[in-house]
Amino acid sequence: MNEPVVRERGGLSLVWLIPILTAIIGGWLIVHTFSDQGPLVTITFRTADGIEVDKTRIKYKSLSIGQVEGVRLSPDFSRVEVRARLNKDAGHFLRRDTRFWVVRPTLSARGISGLGTLLSGSYIEIEPGEGAPQSLFVGHETPPVLQSDTAGKRITLMARQLGSIDRGSPIYYQGILAGEVLGYEMANDFRNVLIHAFVKAPFDGLVRSNTRFWSGSGLDLSVGPDGLRIKTESLQALLFGGIAFDTPDGQELGVEDVAGLVFTLHDDLKAIKDQSFVSKVRFVLFFEDSVRGLTVGAPVEFKGIKVGSVIDVRLEYEERNSSFRIPVVVEIEPERIADRGALMKRSPQEAFQVLVKRGLRARLQTGSMLTGQLYVDLDMQPKAPLRLVSAGRAEPELPTVRGAGFDQAIASVTGMVNKLEQIDFLAIGAELHGTLKGTNSLINGPALQTSLTDLSASLASLRGILRVVDSRAEPITANLEQALGAARDALDKSRATMALVDGAIAPESPLHQHTLRLTQELTATSRSLRHLVDMLERNPQALLFGKQPAKEAVK
After folding, report:
1. How far apart are the C-alpha atoms of 342 and 334, rounded to whole Å?
2. Residue 481: helix, strand or coil by DSSP?
3. Which secondary structure element, helix H or strand E, spans residue 263, and what is its range?
4. What's the predicted TM-score (pTM) here?
5. Is 300 strand, coil or helix?
6. Which residue range(s) make up the domain with 211?
7. Using CA atoms, how far apart are residues 72 and 488, in angstroms rounded to an integer?
8. What are the tens digits of pLDDT across the range 325-369?
9. C-beta of residue 113 within 8 angstroms of C-beta of residue 98
10. Would the CA dihedral through 104, 107, 109, 113 be positive or negative?
11. Distance, CA of 435 to CA of 151 (rounded, Å)
């Protein structure tokens, strides 16, 4: 029996081919997966509200570029760390200035945003930035007001108080939306507020070093000859605050580069116009009237035109005569007065001294009877005495006279009340009560009732008589017309007969004279009958009551 011969085959066995191919394909898939995998980024937020693992997307311009893979607390438990994987082609977005924020439904001064997340859920928005590559970021809690690619100019405003201005408040130019407020912070002196804003193109070219900004929040109420006027920049500015700006015309153009400049935010446009008057002169006034209702900022007017304002009202004690006095310091702006001569070319103090010699006096006037607010009224009163206190103050003094202020109005009302108190209203009431009682007894008494009953019966009888007269008036009128026609026929026949007789009878004979007289009487009778018929046609009741007088007929 032959023994088997065992031979060793050289090379690799085909059995190992499949595991080798599997390992190669698996390795290739692993390498391909890692090579195509995007970068991993870590973002820290204050809370994880709306963020879910494997659901929350990373979006750029509404396009998904990544997804959240994990959420955990930071080592100090102060923030939440969100780990997200971005697509490979979005790796260049991860720079130092890149910003992340969570998009949720939000109501702000800019309106309602993020409504789409009510159905799709919250997502993380990314805004690419510049700088060195980075993988750890601090997320923003609120979306940025402006995107980094928005053209425009950043400005800084300073205000005494913030008011209703908030992040996202609009900025207007001539009523057109031109920018938004980016944010605000306290100034270093802790007395003012710095407001950071952005003016979009092409309105940024209008912002220069001489541009004026004022608050456009709230309502501007004014009462004039045409009634009550209400003005506001827009409904959005009324609700969420706003700012308006303008660059003056007719002046030297300001510098266009405003980087580093801090603009003043005025309360309103009126405040800007008031500050345009540079020259200001102070005077002191001493009034005999009560200054209740006179406040700092009250206007100083001349002939109804504002020429200044009150800047100080205080109480002083005079130890020399143990009395009190109230100096009122006013600030007058001479530039508001246009001079056609040489008076205002002098110094303001000299010009007002000349006006005082000519009769310039100051008095308190009531600006509003509703609020009792007072203002200082300047007027020329040459006959008024020159009253000066000469208190030795640094400010020159303007003479004053007593005015028709609120106290005088109260005194007049008090005098009227005192006169009314002297009237015996009880006696007048008693007499009025007696008169009313007598009138009541007369109206409700039996005599008046009997008279009304008799009058009613008389009116009923009169109606019956008039009804009979109306029924008989037409036949009587027809008979009279027939009689009038017969009389006319007789007259015509008499005239014909007269014509025949006239030829036969001599004019001097008695028969001729009697015939003429008969003809005249027939004519008069016919005329009377005609008048009677006309009168009965107009007034048939004349057959019963007779002919009315001429005046009553006219009535």
Report:
1. 14
2. helix
3. strand 262-266
4. 0.48
5. strand
6. 152-275
7. 135
8. 888 999 888 777 766 666 666 777 788 888 888 888 988 888 776
9. no
10. positive
11. 89
